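Before any further analysis, we paired sequence with structure tokens, yielding the entry below:
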Amino acid sequence: MNSHNFFRFIAGIVFASALPPAMANSEKKPTSQDIAAKTEQQQLLKAKEASQQTQQREKQVLQRQASGDWEAEQKAKANAQFNQRESREQRYLREAKEAAAKDRKIPKPN
């Protein structure tokens, strides 16, 4: 070992021993396995939350269907749509009758 390397070695030991233990441990870089495990845990938590939300929505839908509110709601929506269509048709017919009853403003060609 030449003198230059020896001094570098001694400086490394002195510097490492001067650091507090907490600082030396915090400088440990995460490995790819640590990152993969952390990512997997995050994905599992997300999947669990999504599953719980889906179950809650299913339970709410089943409760609405069981109480009969859902069916009544659907009937009311269908009736409202039917009435809108009917009133639209009535309006079109009324406008067509009015247009037919009007005198022509464009002169007939001879």
Summary: The chain has a mean pLDDT of 81. The CA atoms of residues 6 and 68 lie 86 Å apart. The longest helix spans residues 32-67.
